[in-house]
Input
Amino acid sequence: MENLLEIKDIQTCFHMDGRDVRSVDGVSMYLKRGEIVGIVGESGSGKSVTMLSMLQLISSPGRIVGGEVYLEGIEGNLLDYKAGSEMMRTVRGGRISMIFQEPMTSLNPVLTIGYQIQENIMLHLGLGKEDSRKRAVEMLKMVNIPDAEERFDYYPQQFSGGMRQRIMIAMAMSSNPDVLIADEATTALDVTTQEQLLEMIRDVAKKTNTAVVIVTHNLGIVARYAERIYVMYSGSVVEMSDTRRIFHNPQHPYTRSLLRAIPRLDDPKDRVLIPINGLPPNPAERPEYCPFYERCEYRMDRCIKNGKPVLKELEKGHISSCCLTASELAQKEEEIRNKESLKAPKKQIQEELCLEVKDVRKYFAIYEGALRKKVGDIKAIEDISFQLRKGETLGIVGESGCGKTTLARCIMRVYQPEGGQIIFHGEDIASYKDRQLKPFRPQMSMIFQDPFSSLDPRQTAGSVVGESLLVHKLVKDRKEYDARVDELFRIVGLDPALKDRVAHEFSGGQRQRIGIARAISSNPSMIICDEPISALDVSIQAQIINLLEELQAKLGISYLFIAHDLAVVKHISDRVLVMYLGKIVEIADCLDLYEHTLHPYTKALLSAVPVADPDVEANRERIAIQGEVPSIRKRPDGCPFHNRCPHAMERCKKEVPKLKTVKGNHQAACFLYE
Output
């Protein structure tokens, strides 16, 4: 066999509403030993279902209705073996391992992590108890789990998210697999943790000659790590080539549209993202012609007449399923470029302050023992000071656990801070009681990370959006209420006819639009956006970012934009504040911070963000950041970053640097600039 793994024309159906719906429609792929391959596409494109079908992990009401899977060293088609057969159990977890998106649901909370890795080794490598324990400890050391021997007997809930994902990698690699599948394995992680894990997967793969499949919707990740890329849409592969050609000479309109929709770290600040309009077709109503036709800017009449396009080789190693010729695509590309280009909406930033935060602190008490005796405090945020002008966007970035959301909750007065001032429209609301806060509540709103869990599943979309109108008595009667709800739906690009539907009847992007409509319903002067796009697809992210910018230009709203995607933060923010372990380490105007970065932590954060261009990635200076964020309960003495900083001095271990102005409006908390 020339390839390590071959998938041929795999087809998977799900039985819904009395009929079979084809979720994966004739996907073919191959994988060579030691190769890293990326699979990209929007949610619902069939990426994960293809991988699960290959391993016969599809459960009822799904079933594999056709196709072949061949693995080097095994006779015949893997799909001819029963899902529960000894052969498939040997392949799954032995020859082919998979790392899933959410490690907490993949690890058993009542078994120690050591036992779970050991069990895998004993099953697939046939080692005894002592030898399997030694190998499990070796694997934990390989993925940089500190104190591996001691932590062998820890439970999953005693580790951070990044550590749990490392444990999943250790478990997946413990059986010496030939193929490792990382299915959105780093999506929920910080950029620094994501970089550490992907570098580790690449190093291990190259050392052991393991083939890796990275399933993701992050095009920056595949630009940095993949050698070949499959682009999937609506259950089919639409394009495949080596990474450089996919990014520099994409041939399928869908691939081109994906690349136009993503913000890049090296983009000019005023670039307008071009979203892919519409939604992928419902698999139950997939057309007989090109499934991308309705959303395609390059479409022609014959795209319908020719039926569903098939993959064809354009040149050696580059295949695409578009029925248009290269000259027709070039002509359409020229027409698209000559269209009146979208310009970023102009907004007015006033000198008047909307919000001023001065020396805000928030502590959480630690209780121990049967009598719940207080033994100390967790200092979640300390000495936080910044200003937000009217009409301005302040980006807040940092790793998980640095205090971003705690700060947001203090400003919203969900939490009462231990000290400091929160001056909102000239009044210090830090110590106000609920009754005193009532007039300020309509003036501040929040957009949440997960649009599904933040909407009541029993409420209609219209009542979700209109609730604050009634609570704050912003309308006189039912007629005015209905008119305002309809207007809010139109403002965020939704049809008011949808207002009687409930949350599960909307797509992710539509749900987030409902969340935005709810946030602006009370005419707030400030909105806190807490990771508002991290749960969304690339194309939908572009729509939501553009919508937020339009609303700001039209309504003059101030934004606090919390995110860990620094490319998005650069695109939308006027100034950026960087937090680490409950403290501000740097704050500056957006371009100044990105072009003249001062703090070593900010430099490491920016270095960890992958750029969706393999040539840029190959030539970028990389600053590795070692270790995990320390526990906030055991905050290091001195500078909180000193134990991970490449420039740490003896002074950094003893003294805490103060936030000082280095140049102009650029402030940093670092002894390097004293």
